[in-house]
Amino acid sequence: MEVFVRDIADVLENLAPLEYAESYDNVGLIVGSLHKKVKNILITLDLTEEVFDESISRKCDLIISFHPIIFMPMKNITGKTFSERIIIHALKNDISIYVIHTNLDVVWEGTSSYISKLLQIKREKVLFPKKETIKKLITYVPINYAVKVRNALFEAGAGNISNYSHCSFNFDGLGSYMGNMKTKPFFGKKETFHMEKETCISVIFPDYKLNIIRNALFKNHPYEEVAYEIYNLENVNPYVGIGFVGNLIEKMNEYDFLLFIKKKMNIPCIRHSNFTGKKIKKIAMITGSGRLGIEFSVKEEADVFISSDLKYHDFFKYEKKILIVDIGHYESEKFTKNLLKSFLDKNFTSISVYQSEVHTNPVKYFY
Ligand SMILES: [Zn+2]
Questions:
Q1: What is the tally of helices (H) and strands (E) in the chain?
Q2: Which of 344, 343, 19 is nearest to 208 (CA)?
Q3: How many angstroms separate the alpha carbon of residue 290 from the centre of ligand 1?
């Protein structure tokens, strides 16, 4: 079966919608065309020139990178930086570049899922829920069309609350309208006041499905003018956001726990705060730069906070309340390659998916 960049993007964006990316981020197709055929994919954490050369030698026509090579708008592309040279070579060699980054960080089956399985942590919820991810739709439908419209909204992705689907609230009432000469009322006559028995349907839906939900409503509602309201909700989805909170199967002392993560994640060097003397059971973790998560972890009463890019004073701040652990940025995110490979392998059997073998960590350790 032929696979196009569009097919890969669709599957990845179903896992991690582009709308979930942070505002500073740059995700999705960065270089190339969605209509190009794909045979081999190379997955990398960072797209360096060495990784690009690897894509040529392994005959890959699509590179999927976790970190974007373009963050800021470019005024010219002349080859003065490695990012520009990669873009030039990618275009010359017809290699597409796709980025999946903070949108993968915030979804439940994303970056955190692989790490939590690796460390045998049972996740409870995200550490820092993403705001404004839920909307509410209220609409008014003639009684005999309520089932059709409601089902269409469910089908389009509305009405899911945690492990429950098909959630809605409905009540019947009377709607009124009077169309002018230009109208074609579904019930009643133009220029005549009309009252109709209608069902008010209310459902919630994820923010990024707004267009799909609105299209489903318009397609299935019988009126030429559909009355509806859409609201942003303050409610948070406990499964969409940065990091996670969870529990180890069995308590461990702090020393053993550090040894455990060092071994499981193959980390050369760990920086950590003073031991608190408590056993480790509840874990809070943010892969990548996560120093803002320390405060949330303390509020969650986690025994340990694991992340990277922490500053000197971060290790002082909470004294004996929590063990603070910095495992390194690259080390905390390197398993993203495994996650993406197994996800793409499951979804596409006719293409080859490779993980880059280049060690792209720009931070070196001198022992
Ligand atoms: Zn990162």
A1: 12, 17
A2: 19
A3: 10
Single-letter amino acid code for the residue at 289: S
How many whole angstroms from 206 Cα to the centroid of ligand 1?
25
DSSP helix, strand, coil percent of the chain (3-state; round to 5): 30, 30, 40
pLDDT in tens, 267-314: 999 999 999 999 999 999 999 999 999 999 999 999 999 999 999 999
Q: How far is the CA of 332 from the centre of ligand 1 (A)?
A: 8
Cα–Cα distance, 244 to 318 (Å, whole number)? 19
**Would you tell me which CATH number, out of the four given (3.60.15.10, 3.40.50.720, 3.40.1390.30, 3.90.79.10), belongs to the domain 107-128+241-327?**
3.40.1390.30
| Distance between Cα 101 and ligand 1 center (Å) | 8
- Rounded to an integer, the average pLDDT of 202-206 is 97
Ligand 1 mean position, distance from CA 64 (Å):
14
How far apart are alpha carbons 80 and 86 in whole angstroms? Answer: 11
Q: How far, in Å, CA of 112 to CA of 306, rounded?
A: 12
Beta strands across the sheet bearing 62-65: 28-31, 96-99, 62-65, 40-44, 352-355
- Paired tokens of 123: 């996740």
CA proximity to 103, closest of 24, 212, 156, 157: 24
